[in-house]
PadR family transcriptional regulator (Ktedonosporobacter rubrisoli), 184 residues
Amino acid sequence: MSLAHAILGWLHKEPMSGYDLKKHFDQGIGYFWPVDQMQIYRTLDRLVEQGNLVLHEEIQHGRPNRKVYSVTEAGQEELRRWLTSPQALPALRDPLLIQLFFAAPLSNAEIIELLEQQQAEHRKLLAYYQQKVTISLDAAPDIPHDVSREKMLQQQVLEYSIRREQTYLDWLKQAIGNIQMLQE
């Protein structure tokens, strides 16, 4: 996924400023696609140059004018093209895996400490995801009929994130147990 497509997705919902976009990222998809303010502004400029967005300045008295971006027809077509395109598998880059791969010179205690630190961080992340759950997706008949398609799809992403963290925690527990059985 590119940041440009995420921005087109947000602006497809409603026009907004770069500042508003940052808030939406942080509150909506930041848990799996973090972004900084400068990345947003650089991408907004590029999308305007490409004709996918149009910029309107709102006059504000006593403050700088507000730059509001909205999606053009070309931007809507690009978003739809991207939404209907299959995606390549994401590259897995996990620093812990590299550390573990080369950790043989460390003592078992040092390796376990490293893994336990990761456990603590993944538990925090799992708790964060679980706190965001608003509907249960485990049993389809129990899903309220008034849940929007958009909310349901967002909850699917959140459910994936929860399961991924639970799986990572299970693997960490197993890895710690295996290392405890190793001879030094």
Notes: DSSP finds seven helices and two strands in the chain. Residues 95-180 form one domain. The chain has two domains: 3-83, 95-180.
